[in-house]
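Quick check before the chapter quiz. The format below is the same one you will see on the exam, so make sure you can read both the input and the output lines.
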Amino acid sequence: MKKSLLILSDIHGSLTNLATVLKWAKNFAIDAAVFLGDGISDLEKTRAKTGFLCPWQQVRGNNDFGSPYQEAAVFDFGGHRFFLCHGHRYNLYMGMETLIAAARNNGANAALFGHTHVPFRDDADGLLLLNPGSLGNPRSRLGPTFAVIECNLGAPPKPEFWGIDFDGSISAIFVGNSL
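Here is the expected output.
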């Protein structure tokens, strides 16, 4: 059975982009969602207003001061185990080794992270590495981005990236493996 997981990170006050994505997600048959930090208070304000109330997993980022959420978590969904973190504690700008080790130590087959504000995907010997990019302060030419991961039992997680266009519409985009 196919399940879809919405992946968001780094809202940084962009409530308009967040509301656009959550309204879109209501019509996309999303089963659960993950937020990877930096904007937890923005998320809490906007979820109810848009009526997008699916189950959420959240971790705090380096700008989520006073948040009760953990900095890392493990989440089982659709037959897969996901390691979730914001990324600021994993030396991402120096390489992915620390993140990969943490994900593997937690038995994950996917590591989801934010912090860099750049959408990213790669495969590290069967471990999916994914950063959805940023809704609020993107640092790539792609603009505001997010991801949806399709999960099917017995198949690897299948990520798809989406971008918010200048007119507020949402389009599928291609993301490679460079930060």
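If your answer matched, good. The chain has three helices and eleven strands.
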